[in-house]
Sequence to fold (369 residues):
Amino acid sequence: MTDLIQLQTELMARIDAAQDLAAVEALRVEALGKSGSISELLKSLGRMSPDERREQGPKINGLRDAVATALATRKAILEEAELDAKLAAERVDLTLPPPPERRGRVHPTMQTLDEMIAVFADMGFGLAEGPDIEDDFHNFTALNFPPKHPAREMHDTFWLPDGPTGERKLLRTHTSPVQVRVMQKANEKLPSWIANGQEPPIRVIVPGRVYRSDSDATHTPMFHQLEGLVIDRDITLGHLKWTLDTFCRRFFETDAVVTRFRPHHFPFTEPSAEMDVQCDRSGGSIKIGQGSDWLEILGGGMVHPNVLRNCGLDADEWQGFAFGLGVDRLGALKYGMPDLRDMFASDVRWLEHWGFSAFQAPNPATGLS
Ligand code: PHE
Fold:
């Protein structure tokens, strides 16, 4: 009897003192488990005489019930405390500012291209596009590069492996092959609202990627050009100069831009020129409208009559000008990036620094964003 009371007192004290659920479970096993102290007592009932059992039975069962209730109570208390602690630890402070969101940025080249397209669209140019993988005819032959002529070596061409028919494809070295495609399509007399296939007069720009085996601070093996082509009856070099000067002032959003034309040679234009923009490259970045450096930004000229003929146009009736602008260079010049190679290194820190928000305010030069 005293043993039972003592056992109960001791178990109750230990249950009350249990600090976690594991301790409660250990006590349950110790007392009520298969060979627990109370279970053993219950088993001993079977070995008792009926009188003894009548006396001890209720006491042992009472002990079992009391301990089981105490265990359940302690367990419930500990579970509640555990939940409270968890809730306190995991509480969300709604007054904290949200963590910064990582937003994608618009690549400076794409921003530049959008701005260039907006300026030319404002001048009435339509948009045309052509393939990056070109054939020799469109990239060279139709553009009046004679076969085997050293002029073909002017470009460090990436040639693709020979095709099954022995035809060699290449990564276009400039956007000029699209001039050919546009003029060829012009003969198909598609509706004039399809810029790619309009009859003369033609007035299109052609943005796109071009490829040359070349790499230094002002050259990358892949870069972007924007070709321009205007074909009409009375087009002169003066129109070309005006168009490019006006473009530069609008694109750079200042009248302070100083440009110069240098005579040059391209097989597909005659006369040909390159245009430079005056800039200052002394301070590790590029600034325009000042300084004594010149950065070449385009080639251009009057479309060679042979090119018109190669594309099926009557060279006595039609004439025009063409130009090819370096998009990445113009962006670097406008936004002050010192090294073109960084543009395509895919360094997220660079992109976050130089990239543009997708939600730009409208460009004051054009009224378009
Ligand atoms: N295609 C020339 C180049 O990549 C640029 C150019 C375009 C020159 C159109 C004249 C006319 O260097």
